[in-house]
């Protein structure tokens, strides 16, 4: 039971159309015995969308995790010096967040959490969800695919005919990818056919 008793930071950024999938992944991790510490980006904390209000999502996240939400840079900073977490999962990870991590731009909660965690040489697992993964963000994806202690949930093109640059992770593989990342291993294959699961 690789996940039993592990303290996992579960960071959520503003790919609102994938939030229902990330909720299911969170539930699966809790069932596997992990303790989740939720971390949310400013858009998740503040924006009401057609997918639900910020309050609704925050309430669901807190209910599943059973822990208070880290929702500011100030709250995220101690993750590093206190060595609070065994693993951070960013799911979904938008192209904006991906770019900031790849380029060391620390101006919001989730990227601060990732930076603070990585300084302890502990694993960071990314479940990408961006319309620009094969566009301008491809270079940032390449940087992070080759960065020590950064791992990816397998991903593919979710709509290659209409959104050729769009990449989305298979959220149903987060638990398995987390088990690998905790052993400092990248689940393979990384590039897969996306089946809308």
Description of the molecule:
It is a single chain. It contains 8 helices and 7 strands, in the order βαβαααβααβαβββα. Helix 5 packs across helix 7 (138-145). The protein has a single domain, classed as Flavin prenyltransferase-like (Rossmann fold). By secondary structure, it is α/β, with parallel strands linked by helices. Helix 1 (19-31) links the parallel strand 1 and strand 2 (35-40).
Summarize the helices and strands and which ones pair or pack.
Elements: E1 7-12, H1 19-31, E2 35-40, H2 42-46, H3 54-65, H4 73-76, E3 87-93, H5 95-103, H6 109-118, E4 124-130, H7 138-145, E5 150-152, E6 155-157, E7 167-169, H8 174-181
Parallel strand pairs: 1-2, 1-3, 3-4, 4-5
Antiparallel strand pairs: 4-7, 6-7
Helix pairs in contact: 1-3, 5-7
CATH top-level class: Alpha Beta
CATH architecture: 3-Layer(aba) Sandwich
The end-to-end distance, rounded to whole angstroms, is 25 Å
Radius of gyration: 15 Å
- What do we call the CATH homologous superfamily? Flavin prenyltransferase-like
Q: Major sheet, described briefly?
A: 7 strands, mixed
**What general outline do the C-alpha atoms trace?**
globular
* Distinct helical segment count: 8
Content-based structural category:
alpha/beta
Oligomer: single chain
The third-level CATH topology is Rossmann fold
Quick take:
By secondary structure, the chain is an alpha/beta fold. Helices cover 35% and strands 18% of the residues. The protein has helices at residues 19-31, 42-46, 54-65, 73-76, 95-103, 109-118, 138-145, 174-181, and strands spanning 7-12, 35-40, 87-93, 124-130, 150-152, 155-157, 167-169.
């Amino acid at each position: 039971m690789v996940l039993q008793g592990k303290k996992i930071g579960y960071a959520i950024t503003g790919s609102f159309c994938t939030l229902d999938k990330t909720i299911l992944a969170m539930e699966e991790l809790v069932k596997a015995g992990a303790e989740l510490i939720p971390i949310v980006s400013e858009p998740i904390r503040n924006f009401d969308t057609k997918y639900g209000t910020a309050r609704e999502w925050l309430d669901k996240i807190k209910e599943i995790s059973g822990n208070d939400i880290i929702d500011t840079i100030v709250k995220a900073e101690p993750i590093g010096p206190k060595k609070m977490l065994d693993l951070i999962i960013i799911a979904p990870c938008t192209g904006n967040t991906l770019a900031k991590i790849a380029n060391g731009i620390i101006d919001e909660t989730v990227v601060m959490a990732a930076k603070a965690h990585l300084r302890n040489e502990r694993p960071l697992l990314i479940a990408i969800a961006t319309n620009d993964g094969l566009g301008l963000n491809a270079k940032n994806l390449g940087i992070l695919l080759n960065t020590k202690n950064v791992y990816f949930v397998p991903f593919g093109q979710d709509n290659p005919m209409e959104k050729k640059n769009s990449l989305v992770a298979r959220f149903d593989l987060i638990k398995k990818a987390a088990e690998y990342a905790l052993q400092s291993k990248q689940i393979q294959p990384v590039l897969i056919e996306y089946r809308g699961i």
